[in-house]
Amino acid sequence: MATEPVMHTPAAMKALASPLRREILRHLANHGPATSTTLAKAMGQNTGTTSYHLRMLSDTGFVTELHDRAKGRERWWDIVKADRRMPAREELTDAEQDLAERLGDSRLAEDLRMLSAFAHDRNEDGDWQQGSRAGTFMTKAQLMEFHEEYLKLVRRFGADRDHAPEGARMVLLRWIGFPDPRGS
């Protein structure tokens, strides 16, 4: 994974606004390279739809075509690994801030649905869920430093699918820190 963060452009934020595109990215991250046909089958879509969304993801740098795997008209795609981040709010126009907010809301709702689905059907996988709730006082600079340290921990303990040890599963990590809106 690239060590320098890649800031989302407005086009990238628009690309991520589609839940299906985010599902395509998760599928590729979990299962590896795929064609529009295999993605369509996995997601209950038609190949025209997945082809269109793959092109949008390619145009914004989220996926790349694997030309060495192509056979005839068959096109293979994989994710482009990178440390992707949202730009600072003050760097965005009002319209881009609105887009970033809607994207954040959509992602949060999606995360909560996935967590709820896991929590309701965890059976033997229950011990895979770990979590913590905490509250502490920090300055904005300390919060930013904490975030960078968190990302270092993710890189230290995590692996992409190509380097994952035997028995590893995709684990969804969601870290968020924000001031208590009820505080001063």
Lay out the secondary structure.
Layout: E1 6-7, H1 10-16, H2 19-31, E2 34-35, H3 36-43, H4 47-59, E3 63-65, E4 76-79, E5 84-85, H5 94-120, H6 140-157
Parallel strand pairs: 1-5
Antiparallel strand pairs: 2-4, 3-4
Helix pairs in contact: 1-5, 3-4
Quick recap:
The chain contains six helices and five strands; from the N terminus they run βααβααβββαα. With 184 residues, the protein is mostly helical.
How large is the count of helical segments? 6
The beta-strand count equals 5
* CATH fold category name of the domain at 6-127: Arc Repressor Mutant, subunit A
Major beta sheet, strand line-up? 2-4-3
Mean of residue pLDDT values? 90
Which class do the helix and strand fractions yield?
mainly alpha
Written as H for each helix and E for each strand, in order along the chain, the element string is EHHEHHEEEHH
Termini separation: 39 Å
Written overview of the protein:
With 184 residues, this protein is mostly helical. The chain has a domain at 6-127: Winged helix-like DNA-binding domain superfamily/Winged helix DNA-binding domain (Arc Repressor Mutant, subunit A). It has 6 helices and 5 strands, in the order βααβααβββαα. The strands form 2 sheets. A 3-stranded antiparallel sheet has the order 2-4-3. A two-stranded parallel ribbon has the order 1-5. It is globular and about 60 Å long. The model has no long low-confidence stretch (mean pLDDT 90). Keywords: DNA-binding, Transcription, Transcription regulation. GO terms for molecular function: DNA binding; DNA-binding transcription factor activity.
